[in-house]
Amino acid sequence: MRWRALAGFLAVALVAAIGYGGYRLLTEARTVFLGEGCRITAPQGEVQLSVSQAANAATIAGVAHRKGLPRRAVVIAYATAEQESHIENLSYGDRDSVGIFQQRPSQGWGDPDQLQDPVYSSGKFFDALEKVDGYAKQELHVAAQEVQRSFDGTLYAQHEPMAEILAEGFTGDKDGEVTCWYRPGDGVKADTKKAFAELRRTYGKGTKAQGDTVMVGSGKAADGRALAVWAVTHARTYGFTEVRHAGLRWTAKTGHDGWSKDDAAPADRVLIR
């Protein structure tokens, strides 16, 4: 649509003009202007993301879960992704950099198509992070810079508060909540088979699906909440209109209002329709 293209052009121009702080304000305004967005709330505060940013954030958390990594790894990844791409899956960047983490094919991260696959690029980031001795106890910007080797590694530190809020929501912590909304008719025909295949690719073979029900192998409450959040952030992509889990229900029609009470929603699995 022309108005979407115009909005995107204005966003790029304004970001260049007003920098990071302005970008965050612009993101919040964009969710209102376009009638779509996602909201992550936690005791520390609230963050607004676009639907695509939130889907990428959910994927990052899912890959960390598959690899059995601690929450700190997810926080480092979010701060890095925010600095590198604003958590967008970019097809361009400095020199040959692409993707969420702006990884470079010329430096051996993978080919361009691979690096624009959020599951692949997140896995490569975490592979490198795991090689950083004691990363979980280091200052965030130090650990991130060991992976990225950017021009100014201190810049990652400014995103730590935001990254903590995102981790609260996307890893399934009980005090975090993620909800998304988008314009009616923006969704596609429901394709649960394709969605469940992507879930398994993200979370690992322990993810089980049957009919409209899905669960992560461990059965832990936090894992169920994280999986439900993945479903919400990918609802538009795969045509979901409803997600139910642990006494709560999200619908595409009422996404802006968040999750509502649903006593019939099971605690041991996530229902997706």
Structural features, described:
With 273 residues, the chain is an alpha+beta fold. It folds into 2 domains: 2-170, no CATH class; 187-272, no CATH class. It contains 10 helices and 9 strands. A 6-stranded antiparallel sheet has the order 4-5-9-6-7-8, covered by helices on one side. A 3-stranded antiparallel sheet has the order 2-1-3. Helix 2 (51-66) crosses helix 5. The two termini are 28 Å apart.
Describe the SSE topology.
Layout: H1 2-33, E1 37-42, E2 45-49, H2 51-66, H3 71-85, H4 112-115, H5 118-130, H6 140-148, H7 160-170, E3 177-181, H8 192-203, E4 208-210, E5 213-215, H9 221-233, H10 235-238, E6 242-245, E7 248-251, E8 260-261, E9 270-272
Antiparallel strand pairs: 1-2, 1-3, 4-5, 5-9, 6-7, 6-9, 7-8
Helix pairs in contact: 2-3, 2-5, 2-9, 3-6, 3-7
* Main beta-sheet annotation: 6 strands, antiparallel
Rg calculated over all Cα atoms: 18 Å
- Number of helical segments? 10
What form results from the Cα inertia axes?
globular
Strand content: 5-15%
Counting DSSP E segments of at least 2 residues, the number of strands comes to 9
Main sheet strand line-up: 4-5-9-6-7-8
The level of helicity is 40-55%
Spans of 5+ residues with little confidence (pLDDT < 50)?
Answer: 1-18
User: Between the first and last Cα atoms, what is the distance in angstroms?
Assistant: 28 Å
Structural class: alpha+beta
Chain-averaged pLDDT: 87
User: Can you tell me the number of structural domains?
Assistant: 2
Order of helices and strands: HEEHHHHHHEHEEHHEEEE
